[in-house]
Every structure is written in structure tokens, then in C-alpha cells.
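Hello again,

I reread your note about wanting to compare the complex against the isolated chains. To keep things tidy I'm splitting this into two emails, and this first one only covers the full assembly. Below are the input lines as submitted, including protein chains and any nucleic acid or small-molecule components. They are followed by the predicted structure of everything together. The single-chain runs will come separately.
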Amino acid sequence: MELGYLPILIYFLLAVAISTLILFVNRLLGPRRPTPGKAEAYESGIHPQGNARGRFHIRYYVIAMLFLLFDLEIAFIYPWAVLYRRLGLGGLLEMLTFLVILMVGYLYAWKRGALKWE
Amino acid sequence: MPSNISLLALVLITIVKGAVLIGALLMAFAYGTWLERRLVGRFQLRLGPNRVGPLGLMQPMADGVKVIFKEDFVPAQADRLAYWLAPALVVAVALTAFAVIPFGPPSVKLFGVPLFYISNVNVGILLILAVTSIGAYGVILGGWASNSKYSLLGGLRSTAQLISYELGVGLAILGVILLAGTLELPQIVEQQAGTWFGFLPRWNIFLQPLGFLLYSIGALAETNRAPFDLPEAEQELTTGYQTEYGGMKSAMFYMAEYIDIVLVSSIATLLFLGGWQGPFIQQLPGLGVLWFLVKVLAFVFIFIWLRATLPRIRYDQLMDLGWKVVLPLALLNLLLTALIVLIWPWLGGGG
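Full-complex prediction:
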């Protein structure tokens, strides 16, 4: 393991410790007086109707899938960008091919209304 | 990392540096709220909080004391573990992202280790992107755990917004990476030293104006700030995924938001505005921290200014902007940059 990651791990543990500590101190110092009314979910003054964890719109799934696709693509472009000067024209053409194929899918999704919110 | 110091010394120095950094970030959160309330007050021809201490400077402390003595409360229907985990997660993630942010030049050393950053790894900016994207889990967990309709809808909206603009941000940063040929942040800043034609700083913003604009839009959206603060659109969703949160846990979501503002401002400064580069940096390298902080503060000021100026946009407009404007433009920017680097490989200093 490269030693550069050790300080990051230590710092990460420190950050986790601090955020846990803040929550813990609040639990220690704050009062606790639960009442049935307080424990109910807020629904503008009326009793909550049904369970909140119901079904939600398909669009969120579509956005999530599109995001996965594009984010993976961007993850692929990062190493390409770092080495770009060594790859030269060939590298540009290859990336262009890759992006054109992706753009066909993007335009298809757009045309089919996957990006439409009303 | 230097090999001439012992592992124990490295661990100890890192703990001290980390504690100072976290302390500074928590102070930045406290005084970020103060600055915002004062400035928005001025923008709206009010005074803002000015009663507690001189200029209201003790207001964040009073708020902190109030919040920490608030009831520690969990709604009856909530998923207790996730309800607890969400605020801790967003804060821990926001803090962790600063591990590879260099506040000053690496030449300034303390006991043989660079003083102004926790660590420098060869995937620098990629690590930040990876860590910050975990923050989206905090939002969706908080929204889901509360078992309230406002929370769930707010959490869903917020997550969809975060992931949509993450694409634009990722692609906008790629333009700079193409110019720099590296992912290491200190190196990217070093390449922006000096001037063009004797007066124009060699900052990447002048080579990547479109990239900078797209990054800034994405940064606003990723931090849920106005005009993209839809997850907290009071009229529609109360306070979105935070609806069922109160006291310290609610404050922790705000803590993460303000720390994230500092984070995206820092990234913008490093990638586009020359980081710690500024006058007299050769003679006095420690001065770099000051230049860095001035640039970050200017960016934070613009965040607050925009909030006071722009109305909130509609959700469909937000998604349209992300998917149909920012994303294609960022791709175009990437291809144009690649073409330019092919013609003039010496541009940007990564050659």
C-alpha cells in the first residue's frame, strides 16, 4: 500500500469520530420527552395517511439508470484524459467513436422522452 | 510521502493536522451561517443578526449552544439506524473530502511533511469526486428513514438532482485534466504559476471559460443552493429530506451543506483560479494560504449573492438544464479541449 493513503485513512477516522461525537453529545445533553403527537410524521397538521414508503415515479429509476451509464463513461474518460498527450490523434479518434456511440443512446433516450419531466 | 520520517511521527502529525483542519472547517460552518445571514440581511435592506456580541459575531456560538441542548428525537415510524446514520454520514463525507485539498504550496513543510494538506495521492481529484458522491446516500437515507412523505419526496428529488449534475461536474473537470495531464491537485496548481503576456495570470479559467461556468452551475446544484435549492422548497416539500429532523441532527445537515460550499469553492479555486498562486509567492510561500482563502471567500460570497438575487427554478427546468444543456455542453467542451490540446500540446503546462 502506498503511504499516501495512510494519512487519508487517519483523517477519515477522525472525521467519523467527530461526527459521531457531535451526535453523542446531543444525546447526552438534550432532554427526551416523547409524546405520541410529536412522534407522528409531519403532514401539515393532519394524522399521516398510510405509509410514506409507497411507490414512487418511474422517472427516478430512469434517471438513476442513465446516471449509471454516463458516470461509468466519465470514469472511463479520466485515465484517457491523463494520458491524452501520449495517445495523440489516435486517442482522440478512439474517444470520438466511443462518445458517438454513447450519444446515439443519449439522443434515443431524449427522443423517447426519458428526460422529460412535466 | 517522505520515507525519512517514522510511521509513528507521520500518524501523530496527521492527527494534529486533521484536528486543526476539522476545527477550521467547523468554524467555517459557524461563520458561514453568520456571513450568509448578515449578507442576505444587507441584500434585503435589513441588518441581520447584530445583537449577540460585536457585529453579531457570537451569534453562531449562541446557535450552537441552543442546538446542542435540543431534544434528541426520533419519530415513531422512523428506521432508527438509518435516521441516525444519515446526518453523521453527510458530515463525515463532507469533512473527508478535504483530505487531498492543498491549501498552500507543498514546499512549506513541517517535520518533513507538507504542512498545507493531509496527503497527496496520484488520483487526487478523482478521490474527491468518489468521496462526495457518497454524500448522496446520506440524503436518500435521511429521506427514507424518516417515513414521512415530504422527506421521501424531498430525498428522491434531491438525489436525482445530485446525480444529474454530478455528470456535468465530472465532465467539466475533465477539461482541466486534459490540459493538466494529471489528477494531482498540487501539480495542477503548480502548472498555473506565472502569467501570459506579462499580465494575465495563467489560470485555467482563461483556457476553460465554458468549463468553469458549467462547473459553477454544477457546484450550485450539488450543494443544493439557490437557485437550485428545490429539495428544500418550503412551499412544496416543507424542508424536503430534513422535514423530520430537529436539533443537532438537522444542524448537521446544514453543517454538511456549508462545508460542501467551502469544498466546491476550494475545488473551483484549485482547478480554475490558480489555487494558492498569487503575488510574492516565490519570496514567501506561506502567503499562498492567504491567496487561496481570498479566492475561496470570493466564491462563497458569490454563492450568497446568487441566493439573494435569483428566484428558485422549477423542478422540470432543473432537470432539463442538467440533462439537456449542461451535459451536452460539457461533452462539447471536452471534445473542443481535446482538439486544442492536440494542436497546441504545450497549453496548460501538462505537456
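For quick reference: Chain B is about 60% helix and 0% strand.

B.
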